[in-house]
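A quick word before the example. In earlier lectures we treated sequence and structure as two separate objects. From today on, think of them as two lines of the same record. Here is C4-dicarboxylate ABC transporter written that way.
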Amino acid sequence: MNSTNRKAPIRQASSSHPFKNMKDLSPASFGMVMATGIVSLAAHLLAMPVIADILFRLNIITYGVLWLLTVARLVGYPRYFFTDLSDHSSGPGFFTMVAGSGILGSQFVVLSGNISMGLAMWFVTIGLWLGTTYTIFTAFTIKREKPLLSRGLNGGWLLAVVAAESIAVLSALLANHASQSYELELNFLAFLMWLWGGMLYIWIISLIFYRYTFFLFSPKDFSPSYWINMGAMAISTLGGSLLVSNAANAPFLHSLLPFIKGFTLFYWATSTWWIPILLILSVWRYACMRLSLNYDPLHWGVVFPLGMYAASSHEMATVMALEFLSFLPPLFLYAALLVWVVVFVSWILTLLRRIGICCF
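And the structure line, produced from the sequence above:
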């Protein structure tokens, strides 16, 4: 969020302040962890182990560095941090911390078989989800001054859905490795979070669709975060597919199998519907209206849905024996890898420019 739109802090930091470069750290910075993690998992599912492993190792480093930067910002500039937390436009970006933690935990379980680290990340993810969900939505509710719908709402709000579904996915994965005494509880939690995420999506997407069709919508309004319209349904598809897979060892899931399969297909169909319109609006924004493609942390919000669609389509096609959909996962994985490379290079160049090394 641009600092020029904020009220100035009571005491300005001096030029020697150790955290002076942290004040404008985007709340959505953990989107890089989300994007890198799901592309890694999709690469693993589609038999690209080298790419999956490289991205996994990179994601561990990225996650640790981003936490150090986040804590530095909280300590050095608490007013900026909490202003973002209660802001309708930037606040939902903090849900990337939740989703990024959940997806990294899923990587530990699937890619390295490290169940202990997966469980540790599960606790971190749940703690972050409780803290962010009830802090952010409470702040939005009790604020005395609130923006108009057309100014305060964007696709980033659906990161709340992704955060909930990341818990569903990680819980379902851990259930396969838990002792019998905890397997049922983990599957039940996965099912509840899957349902909650779906309900939250219906609430928020109704407002977003209303904002699309009944308010002036300029190219600048179509931020990359709107790709989460599709990504939120894609991760819901992945969660449902894992529940279908777990049903054989969970009697209550087995009794609900038709319902779970039906809604999983519903979620996948919804995510598929969004793809053409998002592509059209992206062409309108960048090709027709010639808006800049300069690096923005929100660009990771384009990578994540593409990678998640690849992973979720693969899992759904596998558990529901829909072999005719097998062409989709590789197609979207290659697209996700291409966009990941473009965004990553753009991020590196931006860092180099900021320290005066690169003049491009």
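Notice the following. The chain has one domain: 21-354. We will return to this example when we discuss secondary structure assignment.
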